[in-house]
Design a protein that fits this description.
By secondary structure, this protein is mostly helical. About 75% of the residues lie in helices and about 0% in strands.
Length: about 130
């Protein structure tokens, strides 16, 4: 039972966040109009950066994968989920599939990847021990 609790502790947050993204993508209209041009792209990047962070936490904590490799896997998973999200929106009238949204999703995940890789290198250069 302890193992299940550990698994849920790490994997429930990214699963819940992905479900929230799916739920928002299922809405036929956004809760409010954009406050400024490009706001939707900023929100896409932010939402998928958060997803990548949750995935990174799960991969380094529960799976104990080294930070650099976990960052690459988190980026890949978040970017693929962004592509899936765009395909999903194609089937939600009147929403559309938008490659620019997917690029914003991937950019958000890429920021997390870059920060994690830099952190891993700085940590290694400083001689710190850890999951790097």
């Amino acid at each position: 039972m302890r193992r299940l609790g550990r698994w849920l502790f790490y994997w429930l947050p990214p699963a819940a966040w992905a479900a929230a993204i799916f739920g928002l993508s299922s809405l036929s209209s956004l809760p409010r109009p954009p406050a400024y041009p490009g706001e939707d792209k900023v929100l896409h990047a932010l939402f998928f950066a958060i997803l990548a962070l949750w995935l990174l936490r799960a991969l380094t904590g529960e799976r104990r994968i080294r930070l650099g490799k976990a960052a690459a896997l988190a980026f890949l998973a978040a970017s693929l989920y962004g592509a899936f999200d765009e395909v999903h929106q194609y089937f939600v009238p009147p929403r559309t599939m938008d490659a620019a949204d997917w690029l914003a999703d991937s950019l958000g995940a890429a920021v997390v990847f870059v920060v994690a890789v830099v952190a891993a290198r700085v940590s290694r250069a400083g001689g710190e021990e850890g999951p790097l």
